[in-house]
Amino acid sequence: MDLRTTFNIAKADRKITYNDPVMFLGSCFATSIGRQFELGHMPVLINPSGTIYNPVSVINTLNTITDKRKYSLRDLYNHNGTWVSFSHYTDFSSDDPDEILKKINKRSEEALKFMSGVKYLFITFGTARVYRWNETGSIVSNCHKIPAFRFTRELLTPDDIVSLWNKEMDKLESLFPELRIVFTISPVRHWKDGAHGNQVSKSVLFVAVEELLKHRSGPEYFPSYELLMDDLRDYRYYADDMLHPSDLAVEYIWNAFKQCYFDKETIGIWLEAVKITKAFSHRLRNDAGKQVRQFAENIIRQIDSLSTKVPGIDFKDEMTYFEELLKRK
After folding, report:
1. Pairing of strands 77-79, 82-84
2. Which of 125, 147, 255, 261 is the most exposed place for a label (fewest CB within 10 A)?
3. Residue 33 shares a structural domain with residue 115
4. 10 Å Cβ neighbour count for 250?
5. Cβ distance 52 to 46 under 8 Å?
6. What percent of the chain has pLDDT over 90?
């Protein structure tokens, strides 16, 4: 007896290879999957303005990049001595406004350069609830722990999301004709909305995405939400907070993702790259001796072999580290 409700996921007709830059935008779940690309040294960019949860903030992030917007001091807010941007995650906060502006604008420039060659854009919506900064009425990406009474909380409607995103996809199609957009719904529950409130929010997102899939550019949908909620459906697959997926669950969803978007050759290269990445991250207690040198020589051979298969793959840091090991006695 199979005590699971498994389902088939149609394989993508256009596969992702090591020649295809991929961008992930959205909730922390987008970050979890994007990091698997980083682990395998694939060309990827993850949330250039930090983690974002609602559909409006994802559009704001994209527009900041494609419109070449430059942030200035008037775009920041000082909260208890810390300068913040309501369009960016806390990683971009600082007590030095010049520092944060330099970081924001540099990151946007890098993202625009990366987007010029992007083949796939994965969008993960986490919630349909948004917060408006009362002083301007603008929807924020992050409240930065500023008191709640300074914001107005509201629930987007499916029509709100569809209207905004149809226009955004028109724009992206004109700028990047070869771009393939894939929507996903984050399986992470927003528990502060309550059990019922979370379900309402997710339902709004599902209805909106279903309508957006009709856009002429042919966007797709990947069932990350269903894989956790309907396939795994067990608290063994959750982290300690009982809300986020565990590492095992992320690995399970990632495997489904690979089977959908990678061919056998790409999967094989990714596995080879991951071995090198893990060897690099494992710092040896005793980094001298014959066995260590043999280990370093073996990894260097693997790097050389993989670099031949995938010209342009970047193992500079790894190569430097293992070459240094060979010099130690």
Report:
1. antiparallel
2. 147
3. yes
4. 20
5. no
6. 87
